[in-house]
Design brief:
There is one protein chain. This protein is mostly beta strands and 214 residues long. 10% of the residues lie in helices and 36% in strands. The strands form three sheets. Strands 1-2-8-7-4 form a five-stranded mixed beta barrel. A three-stranded antiparallel beta sheet has the order 5-6-12. The chain is globular, with a radius of gyration of 19 Å.
């Protein structure tokens, strides 16, 4: 998944007619667009929200209080810059970072609704639902590759995180944990990842073996 792609997310919404809270699985556009933004393009710069400021920044604080989601993931990519040598140009080497036990992670996210003023109310594209991933300083294997990493929610806390009635900032921040409790593995993968047009399991192959389809 690349920024501005649709990503599968789990969230809870209050039904207007009944007041009942329902849990939903729905695609959200990656890159949060605040309700007051003038353009959908704003989201390309807001794919991540720093945990240190997420509860105070105007772009995120309302979503942090009321519109939280979970993004299921097997892992995430980060990059290291490799210096040029006499025989090769400088390049960015991608790494796939995932739980050592191969379990799925539930990354902590926020979502927002944005109304496109250029589109009529009932027309497709009038409303967009967008999201961002909360990040923190990286540790362990992830920290050796990149200074930041996403935060996750432990299974026992999924309900509390998704509950739209749960609005205490301190209690919500206490639910944020390192993915896989910090037990992460990082391995170099194909540089085909560097082109967002590429997709498929072959992206997880070892460097230098970019042609096979796993």
């Amino acid at each position: 998944m690349a920024p501005t792609d649709d990503v599968w997310s789990v969230l809870e919404r209050v039904e207007r007619e009944t007041g009942e809270i329902t849990r939903q699985l729905r695609p959200l556009r990656w890159g949060l667009v605040p309700s007051w933004a003038k353009s959908l393009k704003t989201g390309a710069k807001m794919i991540n929200a720093r945990v240190e400021t997420v509860a105070e920044k105007p772009a995120y604080r309302r979503a942090f209080a009321k519109r939280r989601c979970l993004l299921p993931a097997d892992g995430f990519y980060e990059w290291q810059t490799v210096a040029a040598t006499q025989t090769a140009k400088a390049h960015k080497q991608p790494y796939f970072i995932s739980p050592e036990d191969s379990q799925v992670m539930a990354l902590a996210g926020l979502y927002e609704f944005w109304r496109d003023p250029a589109v009529e109310d009932d027309a497709p594209g009038a409303w967009w639902t967008t999201c961002t991933i909360i990040t923190t300083e990286a540790t362990d294997a992830a920290g050796r590759v990149h200074p930041r990493m996403p935060l996750a929610i432990a299974p026992a806390d999924w309900g509390a995180w998704l509950d739209p009635a749960h609005e205490d900032p301190g209690e919500l921040r206490a639910l944020l944990t390192a993915p896989a409790a910090g037990h992460l593995a990082a391995r170099a993968v194909s540089t085909a990842v560097n082109d967002v047009r590429n997709n498929g399991p072959h992206l997880l192959t070892e460097p230098g073996d970019d042609t096979g389809d796993a």
